[in-house]
Design brief:
The complex is a heterodimer of chains A (210) and B (234). Chain A is of the alpha+beta class and 210 residues long. Chain A is built from three helices and ten strands. The longest helix of chain A is centred in the middle third of the chain and has 9 residues. Classes of the chains: A alpha+beta (210), B alpha+beta (234).
Chain lengths: 210, 234
């Protein structure tokens, strides 16, 4: 994989560590670059994008994968909205592929997947709603998210499963905003499957824009 | 006992509240049918969640006897019968941009044969219920298959001729729902504009025997979602 020179000598506009199970809401102007760094490896970073000018114009996982003709996201993937507007493009990816069909964990979906004993475990949907409120993003604005660093293989037979991540400490993905966007991130607290290597860890957000 | 039949022409959108405990059968009245479905809980906030439905049942397609699950972990409906083993749920619905290749169209020129996208039709139906584009969500595209390759990107390819006239799928509503349907052509269908009509039949479902019902016995996850809906309706 070709990785262009990382401008580590340029001071980042944003340098934010998001602890395990926490979230972030970041406004990125058109042309701004946002890097999500998997500091400890195998950490799912559940991510939603919104047009900052109108949050009804939200990231659409299934429009995105249909228009690119492939399930996995990687460098070059155009992240489209429900109006088919390009919200951002993945411009760097040192992992190779990312999921966008596996959705986010919720208390209620944890109950279905793992049983009633997980009802009161923290989940991504709460983080999305808590941090999204600051931009007027509520349950109706929620969409189906990207899971950066998560590995959800699908087969020609139509099966799907969650697998150990392909990521590793220090791997990252970088988005370039095509218009001014909100990036709503939940650093996944899931303890019941391998999406976080069974041990949720921090991710770092680095942003460059003027 | 059939309660009613409704024929949707190709390229049309329609919505109906449906009570829990009904069988909703969609039948393709022609070849190359596509019927995109949105499904909302009667509370109009909770709605079909395709990612949760897929990961809970380890599937990348919809078929019998899978349970269709909501954001809040309820079983909205079960797929109790299907003549096809694959209904697409990964490729969304078409927008006006997907109809441009068929040329200009308008009501003035084409009357009721004018071409409108699934997005336009679905939003139009949502609006009637006080909803709007925020309430759009990933649909099931009944009668359509988009195959997944085993390559590094999991490439997707539309499968022509997947459904034929007479193919059908039956849902059992597990909750009071708002059913929103659109028969616009699938955006990846490379053929000419000739969307098929779909017949909708609604009837009363028989009492469910949990110990033998295929959906209750499909996976533990399916049963837990059905149990959560049973508790709400109890």
């Amino acid at each position: 994989m070709t990785v262009t020179e990382i401008p580590t000598t340029t001071a980042a506009t944003l340098d934010l560590t998001v602890e395990a199970g926490d979230g972030a809401l970041v406004r990125v102007p058109a042309g701004g670059r946002l890097r999500i760094v998997d500091l400890h490896g195998n950490q799912a970073a559940d991510t939603l994008l919104f047009d900052a000018a109108d949050v009804r114009n939200k990231y659409s996982a299934f429009d995105t994968i249909r228009e690119q003709g492939a399930v996995f996201l990687t460098t070059g993937s155009r992240l489209l909205s429900t109006r088919l507007d390009e919200l951002a493009v993945i411009t760097e990816d040192t992992v190779g592929r990312h999921d966008t069909i596996g959705g986010a964990c919720a208390q209620e979906s944890n109950v279905i997947r793992y049983g009633e004993h997980t009802r009161h475990q923290h989940a991504c949907r709460q983080t999305f709603l808590a941090y999204g409120a600051g931009a007027g993003i509520g349950p109706r604005e929620m969409g189906h998210n990207i899971n950066f660093f998560m590995n959800v293989p699908v087969s020609a037979e139509g099966d799907l499963h969650f697998d150990d991540g392909l990521s590793a400490p220090g791997k990252y993905v970088e988005l370039t905003a095509s218009r001014e966007i909100w990036v709503l991130l939940s650093n996944c607290p899931q303890l019941n499957n391998p999406c976080n290597g069974w041990d949720p860890t921090p991710v770092q957000l680095l942003g460059w824009w003027s | 006992m059939s309660l009613y039949l409704h024929d949707m022409p190709g390229g049309a959108a329609w919505s109906a509240p449906v009570s829990a405990g009904r069988l909703v059968t969609l039948t393709a009245l022609g070849d190359r049918a596509n019927c995109s479905m949105l499904l909302l809980n009667a509370d109009r906030v909770d709605r079909l969640n395709i990612p949760d439905t897929l990961k809970a049942q380890m599937s990348a397609r919809i078929t019998a006897p899978m349970v269709l699950m909501s954001d809040r972990g309820l079983a909205l409906a079960s797929v109790v019968a299907s003549s096809l083993d694959w209904h697409d749920c990964l490729t969304g619905f078409g927008s006006e941009a997907h109809l441009e290749r068929f040329g200009a169209t308008s009501y003035a020129a084409d009357r009721n044969d004018w071409r409108r996208s699934a997005r336009t039709g679905l939003v139009s139906e949502l609006t009637k219920h006080g909803l709007d584009e925020r309430d759009l969500h990933a649909p099931v595209n009944f009668f359509t298959k988009v195959a997944i390759a085993g390559d590094a990107r999991a490439s997707m390819t539309f499968v022509p001729g997947h459904a034929r006239a007479g193919d059908s799928v039956t849902l059992r509503t597990e909750h009071d729902v708002l059913l929103v349907l659109c028969t616009a052509p699938h955006p990846l269908d490379p053929g000419e504009y000739a969307p098929s009509a779909v017949q909708v039949s609604v009837e009363v479902a028989a009492t469910v025997a949990q110990d033998t019902d295929p959906s209750w016995n499909w996976r533990e996850e399916s049963a837990r979602a059905l149990e959560m809906s049973r508790r709400v309706l109890a």
